[in-house]
Amino acid sequence: MAEAKSTELMEKLVSLCKRRGFIYPSSEIYGGINGFWDYGPLGAELKRNVKDLWWRHIVHRRDDVAGLEATIIMSPRIWEASGHVDTFSDPMIDCKTCKGRFRADQIDEIPCPQKPSKCVQDCHGEKTEPRAFNLMFTTHVGPVRDDSSVAYLRPETAQAIFAQFKNVLETSRQKVPFGIAQIGKAFRNEVTPRNYTFRSREFEQMELEFFIKPDEVIEAIHGSIATPGEGHPGEPQPNWGWQIWHKYWVEERIRFYESIGLPRTTLEEYWQTPEELAHYARATVDILFQFPFGTQELEGIAARSDFDLSQHERFSGKPMKVFDDELRAAWKQLDESKQKDLRQRYHDARLGYLTRTGVESEKAAQLAKEDADGLAKGQYVPHVIEPSAGVDRLILALLTSAYSEVTETDAKGKSETRVILRFHPRTAPVKVGVMPLLKNKPGLVAKAREVRDLLLPHLTVFYDDGGSIGRRYARQDEAGTPFCVTIDFDTIGENGPELEGTVTLRERDTSEQTRVKIDELLPLLIEKSR
Ligand code: GAP
Q1: CA 136 to ligand 1 centroid distance, Å
Q2: How far away, in angstroms, is 207 Cα from ligand 1 center?
Q3: Is there a contact between 305 and 321 (Cβ–Cβ < 8 Å)?
Q4: 177: cis peptide before it, omega within 30°?
Q5: What are the two backbone dihedrals, phi and then psi, of residue 263, each rounded to the nearest 5 degrees?
């Protein structure tokens, strides 16, 4: 029953998105292309708002994060260093009967192409053994198409940040702890794209790599490491180790989602179990959202240790270590046993990383010793906390959360159900609808255009003069527009001077209407849209 309801909601959302110009299937006139979606006029605005809000929250409102905009195609060596060439794959199986191709780990959930209503296992077809299918899209750079020209479309934006870490550090005047943020396209040749835009083959990510000092360095400088408590840990402090920084970013990200209209009750934190963690991660929290098809990942926040920078240091031969004067000075003040203890712990962590990544034991021992010796010189490889969110999943979450239906009965007893998208004004694609009461009264139309032109440089405005005013309000409700302004005969002084120069301001969520002076309209709407 619950499943039928969620399927129904999903169908309604997909159809609304198409009808109102939020999301269209890519290449639809040619039958579409599986796993690719286009954003129409309203969707494009919604997406811009979401990305701008994230950028403002993560980059502009802080002084410890810098931005980056890197290329989609990068040196293939980057993907060797990151592990994507060897390990970024899903287990794929083929059905010998229905010729369907599936992810082996999702076989129970996927409909059979021959009998879409049934589970693939009903097909009873013999399956091939699972084999690894690399999810990266390949292309060739330059005119020669051979092995030497293979390149990849990036499967995540994160690696460009690691590859440019030193350049950003040197040009932004930042010091660890600090972050580098990037928004951009990512591509994954998903075996079975599904759930609308949730799992697409081309999508956008908003990623932050926040670089921090290793715990041994914090301990050397500050004597001890602050331990995380319940809830948000507050303003960052110099004695924070990786655990409290990780907690901080989980809480910050939840605050962000709440601030753009996703209620806390629709979000869940899922702490990955040690068996689920990627080999480089010390902890990962997935922020889940209650999508119509189930509670699933919206964003992952991973404590990735010093894995990424260390890999790029080894593969590129370029140093990724930073020099920290504070550490060098503090190290000299430590007594010998403390130095020995911290040195040993750092050494063991480095040796662990080198051994896990297959460095031959003698070489690993030598490198780990050099790394541990580096502490006394104020030198270390930064660790990283990575909040990584998908733009498209967030758009889908916002649409799901905003969707509501109201049933209204008119004076003749006829009832009608209509949709209202209750977006937070911050994310709403259109902030204000401007409408003359009647389109055939030049005085009303001229004034309405004047009001539109007053608002246009500051807010996204939709001018609408077609149909009854009730219909026009309903159209804006369905697009999620939080405010409508109507210019009527009072506005132009035809009913006396009392209300001349005022308009009706209607609020989407309450249908409440108030009279507002045109002079006060712009600051009021800007305030309400913040
Ligand atoms: N750099 C880490 C990283 O890429 P991920 O969990 O693979 O981690 C991060 O991806 C986020 O990107 C996910 O939480 C999700 O929001 C989004 N994402 C990943 N694959 C996606 C896909 N096929 N379609 C849409 N969004 C996707």
Answers
A1: 13
A2: 10
A3: no
A4: yes
A5: -60, 145
d(CA 40, CA 23): 5
Mean local confidence (pLDDT), 492-521: 97
In this structure, what token pair is assigned to residue 282?
């010390």
Neighbouring residues of 491: CB distance < 8 A, sequence distance ≥ 6: 444, 447, 499, 500, 501, 502, 503, 518
Burial of 101 (0-12, 13-18, 19+ CB in 10 A): middle
Fold annotation for 430-528: Rossmann fold (3.40.50)
Least confident of 189-193, 336-340, 512-516: 189-193
State how far Cα 453 lies from the chain centre: 34
The protein residue with its alpha carbon nearest to ligand 1, atom 23, reads: 199
Q: Which of 51, 256, 276, 388 to mutate to test the pocket of ligand 1 (most atoms within 8 A of CB)?
A: 388
Tens digit of each residue's pLDDT (9 = 90 or more) over 443-455: 999 999 999 999 9
Pick from 279, 271, 113: nearest CA to 194:
113
203 within ligand 1 shell (Cβ under 6 A)? yes
Q: Helix or strand or coil: residue 75?
A: coil
Between CA 513 and CA 492 the distance in angstroms is 18
Q: Is 199 in the pocket of ligand 1 (CB under 6 A)?
A: yes
User: CB within 8 A of 366, min separation 6: which ones?
Assistant: none
Torsion sign over Cα 494, 499, 503, 505: negative
Instruction: Give the CATH superfamily of 40-83+140-320+381-405.
Output: Bira Bifunctional Protein; Domain 2 (3.30.930.10)
Q: Report the C-alpha gap between 342 and 381 in whole angstroms.
A: 15
Distance CA 220, CA 333 (A): 9
Tokens representing 225 are 């490491």
Answer whether residue 110 shows pLDDT above 70.
Answer: no
Residue in the structure block whose two tokens are 């889940």: 288
CB atoms closer than 10 angstroms to residue 357: 16
Alpha-carbon torsion (444, 449, 455, 461), positive or negative: positive
**Which among 275, 296, 293, 294 is positioned nearest to 284, based on CA atoms?**
275
* Atom from ligand 1 closest to the CA of residue 205: 12
For tokens 């309000």, name the residue.
Answer: 473
Half-sphere exposure of 286 (CA within 13 A, CB side): 14
> How are beta strands 202-212 and 89-94 bridged, if at all?
unpaired
Please indicate, yes or no, whether the overall pTM of this predicted structure exceeds 0.90.
yes
CB-CB neighbours of 335 under 10 Å: 8
C-beta of residue 116 within 8 angstroms of C-beta of residue 146: no
pLDDT band at 112 (very low <50, low <70, confident <90, very high): low
* 3-class secondary-structure state, position 408: strand
State the average pLDDT over residues 110-138.
72
SS3 of 444-499: the string is HHHHHHHHHHHHCCCCCEEECCCCCHHHHHHHHHHHCCCEEEEECCCCCCCCCCCC
User: Which amino acid makes up residue 60?
Assistant: H
Half-sphere exposure of 529 (CA within 13 A, CB side): 24
SS3 351: helix
390 in contact with ligand 1, CB cutoff 6 A: yes
